[in-house]
Amino acid sequence: MPREAKHENLKSRAAFKLLQVDQKFKIFQSSEGRALNVVDLGAAPGAWNQVALEKCPKGSKILGVDILPYQPPRGVSSMQANILSRRTHEMIRSFFGSAEKERHSDALKDVEITTNTGDTIIVKENSMMGAQLSETNNESDDSKDDNSLNKTPIDVVLSDMYAPFVQISGFANATTNNPYFRMANTSGLVVRDHEMSMDLCDAALIVAINLLKQGGCSVMKFFSGERDKYLEQRLQMVFHKVYRYKPTASRSESRECYFVCLNKKADYIDKLKVFSSA
Ligand SMILES: C[S@@+](CC[C@H](N)C(=O)[O-])C[C@H]1O[C@@H](n2cnc3c(N)ncnc32)[C@H](O)[C@@H]1O
Predict the structure, then answer these.
(1) Of the candidates 32, 111, 138, 245, which lies 20 to 30 Å from 2 by C-alpha distance?
(2) What domains can you pick out in the chain, each with its CATH number?
(3) Catalytic annotation present for 265
(4) Which residues form the Ribosomal RNA methyltransferase FtsJ domain (predicted)?
(5) Which atom, in ligand 1's list, is nearest to the CA of 46?
């Protein structure tokens, strides 16, 4: 880990890039300090998690997703999963669904419930017990619960994804659970880095289309090349404002750059239209 990141207790110098993005675009600001739901794709070893945790309003929920196992900072949740799998998107949705329910129940008042034996007890409205009692009183309906999940629960989608090295050695040194050994910044092959980043950005864009709220924002890393103008056009169909931004913390000789996308146009956006027109 570079000296300056270690010095500030950050997990990697990637943190400085996100800090600069936030300084310029205020991506973690919300109206009246409302708590945010943030998903961080390609989160290991956790430096962007640290920035999100520090900059988001109190009570915000931050979820890191990575194909590699990693230890998130305290206060951040994590999920080891491949973002290219549709199931991962459903798991992210249901994570934030439960987080919303938790927030609601914290703000709920006490209610009186009459059990089927005729006793009256006081529980938190919508608490586990309340839910169990009303399930035994009424017919339980799983599909109802599923429908109550907010379809677009997220305020910010971050993506710093880059494919990890395939592990072919080092198993004896516990490299499987130490993301530093397998994390790559670039392969050094310009076309390969560019093509791979376009695919991973498209995966992040699908998460943004499916799960980001209207008005939400996204930051995604890419390596510049021939096809990024088409990605930019796709992003412009989903967000009102799309900027290319290269923080000074990113080495000037590197083709690494970021799309900062602000103000999602609507909760529902037709994916097919986005991907068939650009
Ligand atoms: C450059 S690192 C991210 C650094 C991180 N933002 C931080 O601040 O510590 C890129 C990460 O993307 C992850 N990644 C690549 N492809 C992925 C995929 N399909 N699904 C989930 N994570 C992926 C890699 O495992 C790697 O840990």
Answers:
(1) 245
(2) 3-103+147-277 (3.40.50.150)
(3) no
(4) 11-264
(5) 9
